[in-house]
């Protein structure tokens, strides 16, 4: 069966705020402020997003950054610290336990400190791209084959074949 988009799904309403420019969204998010207005708080905890902005009302809690912030954090921390680790190894050739005692806590601390600003920047980037978080509310029905309302299945197809559980 060939997949076709669901052309009969309701179109989500546009966000009530204008998407920020790329630079404004990244810097506001990295600072922990609402990417849309720059006034409200972005986070309600260390990494938990606030449900909505207290200033402009932008829906923040529905945005799901998922694995992007840890990926970018590890990428950046590796590029910042790995040259130093390689330089220390080449210059002094310390035993492995010195590397472990020095670099493992340093990598852990840098990643922990960078994760929140990176997640804020990713959320700002998502807002700039127009991602509102409502795209995933359709669940399984969004990937089921499209059928006009009231159209029945053909032949002896079971309910599972029509996308019903």
Structure, explained:
With 165 residues, this protein is an all-alpha fold. It has three helices and no strands. The radius of gyration is 23 Å and the shape is elongated. It starts with 21 loop residues before the first helix and ends in a 37-residue tail after the last helix. It comes from Caldovatus aquaticus. Keywords: Membrane, Transmembrane, Transmembrane helix. Residues 145-165 are annotated as: Disordered. The chain crosses the membrane at residues 100-118.
List strands and helices in order, with pairings.
Layout: H1 22-30, H2 68-92, H3 96-128
Helix pairs in contact: 1-3, 2-3
Query: What structural class do helix, strand and pairing data support?
Result: mainly alpha
Global morphology? elongated
Poorly predicted ranges: 139-147, 155-163
How far apart, in Å, are the first and last alpha carbons?
18 Å
**Nearest-integer average pLDDT:** 84
């Amino acid at each position: 069966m060939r997949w076709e988009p669901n052309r009969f799904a309701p179109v989500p309403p546009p966000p009530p705020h204008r998407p920020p420019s790329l630079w404004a969204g990244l810097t506001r998010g990295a600072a922990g402020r609402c990417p849309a207005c720059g006034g409200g708080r972005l986070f309600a905890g260390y990494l938990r997003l606030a449900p909505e902005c207290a200033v402009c009302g932008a829906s923040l809690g529905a945005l799901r950054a998922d694995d992007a912030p840890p990926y970018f954090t590890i990428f950046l921390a590796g590029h910042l610290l790995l040259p130093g680790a390689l330089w220390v190894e080449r210059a002094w050739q310390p035993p492995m336990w010195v590397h472990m005692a020095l670099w493992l806590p340093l990598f852990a601390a840098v990643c922990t400190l960078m994760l929140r600003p990176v997640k804020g920047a990713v959320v700002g980037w998502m807002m700039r791209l127009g991602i509102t978080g409502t795209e995933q509310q359709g669940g399984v029905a969004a990937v089921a084959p499209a059928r006009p309302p009231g159209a029945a299945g053909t032949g002896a197809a079971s309910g599972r074949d029509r996308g019903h559980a």
